[in-house]
Amino acid sequence: xxxxxxxxxxxxxxxxxxxxxxxxxxxxxxxxxxxxxxxxxxxxxxxxxxxxxxxxxxxxxxxxxxxxxxxxxxxxxxxxxxxxxxxxxxxxxxxxxxxxxxxxxxxxxxxxxxxxxxxxxxxxxxxxxxxxxxxxxxxxxxxxxxxxxxxxxxxxxxxxxxxxxxxxxxxxxxxxxxxxxxxxxxxxxxxxxxxxxxxxxxxxxxxxxxxxxxxxxxxxxxxxxxxxxxxxxxxxxxxxxxxxxxxxxxxxxxxxxxxxxxxxxxxxxxxxx
Length: 273
Known about the structure:
Helix content is 6%, strand content 32%. The protein is mainly beta. Strand 11 (181-184) and strand 12 (189-192) form a beta hairpin. It is elongated.
């Protein structure tokens, strides 16, 4: 009697299995059940090629299970293989890699690499090629926390954060600076080194021994300005810019700057006139 191609069901023919037809049918129904919601432990300990077990009759095979949990410690690269038939699997990789690679795919076909242990995968195979479904999906929506322990790559299209316009911040951490870059939505501000910037852009050098300036401007275009101040001009101190050339105002102090690596000072006045 032939088995079915995908689930290895024990196919029946007319007049066969007198007295055992019921048990064989029950085995087949169990296989169908486990193909929908079944689970199997699969050891990937060792190295080399490991094939999922597939049985003719009975219910103990791994091949037809919906979910697989991979266990064991690799001692070399392991290629885990399913039969060369269309199927899909939920895979929970709980193996210990010890630095070795683990792949999964149809026998004789193209496999995928399972890059991370302690991770869940959704894998589809068309019988010749395996596909890591979640690496190539359309629109994805998450109503909770979306976490990633591996790399995140944006290639093409626009990246929009907070399109709904709600009061929520974005924060990027450095090695020691928890606010290396932060968008502060409450006041629509951006901070570098500061959680609550007091200006549209706030920059704080957070280390008392950092020995670096807050900003560095390098202008490669030799005949162009470093900055461009745009505002409203007046002849006094009432606007953001002043056309006054007077020097009568009291000197407030000076601000340290650095030009080509050498410290200089800019004198500051109490007013523009």
